[in-house]
Design brief:
- This protein is α/β, with parallel strands linked by helices and 420 residues long.
- Helix content is 43%, strand content 16%.
- The longest helix has 21 residues.
- The protein is globular and about 70 Å long.
- 40% of the residues are buried.
- It binds S-adenosylmethionine (SAM).
- S-adenosylmethionine binds next to helix 16 and strand 6.
Length: 420
Amino acid sequence: MILKFINGETRSLPLKIRKNPEIIHYYNEIIRFWNKLNFIIKSSLKYSKPLEIDQYPKYLYAAFKILWEHTSEKNILIELKDIDRKFLKKVRTFSWDKALKHKNQREKLSILTATPSFMIEHLLTVMNLEFLKTNIEFMNGLNNIEITVRINNLLEKSNLQNLIPHIKESLKQDKIEFIEDLNVPELLWIPISQKNKVIKNQLYQKGNLIFQDKASAAVIQVLSPKKEEKVCDMCAAPGIKTSLIAQYMNNKGYIIAGEFLPERAEIMRLLLNKLNVSNVYILNTDSIVFPIRFQEYFDCVLLDAPCTGSGALLATPELKWRQNRGFLQQNIILQKKLLENALNLLKPDGVLVYSTCSLYPEEGEYQILEFVDHLKPLDLPNWFSPSYKINDKFIQGTGRLFPSIHHTQGFFIGKFKKKV
Ligand SMILES: C[S@@+](CC[C@H](N)C(=O)[O-])C[C@H]1O[C@@H](n2cnc3c(N)ncnc32)[C@H](O)[C@@H]1O
């Protein structure tokens, strides 16, 4: 599996492997700390000739077990058998002070927090080093002890307030601790260590509960769609936000959910069925060019745009190693075209919400600045952080959620009315 990552072939992993939680755990953690582990291995193997490529995963795994899980060398030898003892000892006695002696502050941060230098250089233009470090640490999972689960009330056709006591009772019976979120009433926080218990819980299995990041739910709180409205969710799969839109609308009105990739549209169809969403029409389309009949048609449009994912590295560590100028540029171009079409799809005075799970200003503030002549800014909840300052000014109608402040993914969210 790791060899496949080294060779850039991750999409072809057999389903059996992708479903094994233990393998997935080690895969994710090794990828999350990729450059840090490689640095440790390179420094510890200075005495030997370079490793054969098929030996490499074993060394990554051994270094991770010793330094992250404090596994003894004896137990590693039992598990891996033919691995060099001298290497294990070198890793155990590894000294960061010595190894990083000749590196500057930014290189040290890149290696110690396992973050691509492009990301560090780029984010230091909008935040200071300490704030950057705490956000990266959060996305590395170091301070992340709780996750959010959302209550879905579309199965019972009861309102949220009636369903909450029932859900609480079921969680208590399964000895799952929880607390209600202060800002988003549909969300409960649970300890990450109890995630598996939630997955086994009867109401979760039925579709009454779904894992959803608070920032993702906040995007729909901002959109706040009404029953009977016509809503377009332009980039909708896997449909987590779409299903919350349907919940706000009580399955009334209708939602057109666009998605470019057929396989992701199918995943969304299955999820919406499970959650008993019945007011969504899935459109397998390139949302840059929607059918002509939808021009100036929608009361609200959500553009949860494809992006670099630089704010969502906790959930998808593989994305870390795709952070570079080319990948950012590719996303900026796509987002701009999608934003242009979002304006075509909206009625005059219709509401646009634009969001990205990115920390880069180019995928947030700078995109909005391109369209200011067509947008009237609307208010955001007061628990959001303001946008980054561009030329010393906040961008009205936009805000940010940060891992280290809000304990969410890093998100940019903007809300506007289309100017007539
Ligand atoms: C950020 S994800 C959306 C997540 C989704 N809103 C949710 O909360 O579950 C962006 C989605 O846009 C899709 N996408 C990318 N380019 C697109 C395009 N040109 N038209 C429509 N969908 C596109 C991607 O395949 C991906 O599923």
